[in-house]
Design brief:
mainly alpha, Arc Repressor Mutant, subunit A, 3-stranded antiparallel sheet, 3 strands
């Protein structure tokens, strides 16, 4: 039975290895390449300004000027953040004349953002934070 104290993490008192569970966990374990790419994605999403930009694009594309107004950031700062998001394929762009429109790269980004938002709202409600 795991033991827990207020100062330490719970640990197993019994060192019995559950081979079936270890085998199943190993089969799902990420390789280094996928773990690195996923970590890079989560690092990109760990920035408040980038999350706000993504939230602004949840319903569709916006140009850099619109994103600057919506977020209260300078166009230069918006462009800088979008460059990083584009590099990680979290957003994409299209040009129309002299205007550049940005949108989320695909539904996975929208889903990832929405799931994260649902999680923090659920966790906050259960802790009476919201």
């Amino acid at each position: 039975m795991p033991r827990s104290t207020s100062l330490s993490q719970p640990t197993c008192l019994d060192t019995n290895i559950h081979e079936d569970k270890v085998s199943a966990a190993r089969s799902r374990l990420l390789d280094e390449t996928r773990a690195t790419l996923l970590a890079e994605t989560f690092q990109a999403l760990a920035d408040i300004n980038r999350l706000r930009l993504i939230s602004a694009m949840m319903d569709g594309e916006l140009c850099v000027c619109d994103l600057a107004v919506v977020t209260g950031m300078s166009q230069s700062a918006v462009s800088h953040q979008l460059r990083g998001l584009r590099t990680l394929r979290l957003v994409k762009y299209r040009k129309e004349g002299r205007t550049v429109y940005y949108s989320l790269d695909d539904e996975h980004i929208r889903d990832l953002f929405q799931r994260g938002l649902e999680h923090i709202e659920h966790a906050a409600i259960s802790r009476s934070l919201l």
